[in-house]
Write a structure and sequence with these properties.
The protein has about 100 residues and is mainly alpha-helical. The protein is about 45% helix and about 10% strand. The protein contains five helices and four strands, in the order H-E-H-H-E-H-E-E-H. The protein is globular and about 35 Å long. This is Methylated-DNA-[protein]-cysteine S-methyltransferase DNA binding domain-containing protein.
C-alpha cells in the first residue's frame, strides 16, 4: 500500500502541476527547484503518486521518454506542442525553470 504522500511528495506534485503545457522539467530540476531531495527521490514520488498529475512533463535530463510510457507520453507532447528532437524532448527549448511568469 502506498499510503498518503509525504510532505516532500506533496511539494513535488505541486511543482509538477504548475509545469505549463508544452514544457518539461527533469527529475533533478524539480529537486533543485525545491532545494531538497534528488532525481531518484523525485522519481520515487512520481512512481508512487504521479498518476494524478501531468506525469509526462517530468522526464530524464537527456530528454528521453519514460520507459514503458513512450507512446502515451508522445501523444501528450504532440497535443501540447512540446518541442521534440527525434525520439526525445528538446530540453533546450522545452525545459521549464519554475518561473511563475511562464506558468499558465
Amino acid at each position: 500500500m502506498r499510503g498518503d504522500p509525504t510532505d516532500f511528495a506533496e511539494r513535488v506534485l505541486d511543482v509538477v502541476e504548475r509545469i505549463p503545457p508544452g514544457r518539461v522539467m527533469a527529475y533533478g530540476d524539480i529537486a533543485e527547484f525545491l532545494g531538497e531531495g534528488g532525481p531518484r527521490q523525485v522519481g520515487r514520488v512520481m512512481a508512487l503518486w504521479g498518476g494524478g498529475v501531468p506525469w509526462w512533463r517530468v522526464i530524464r535530463a537527456d530528454g528521453s521518454f519514460l520507459p514503458g510510457h513512450e507512446q502515451r507520453a508522445l501523444q501528450h507532447y504532440r497535443a501540447e506542442g512540446t518541442p521534440l528532437r527525434g525520439t526525445r524532448v528538446d530540453m533546450r527549448l522545452a525545459r521549464w525553470t519554475g518561473d511563475a511568469a511562464e506558468a499558465g
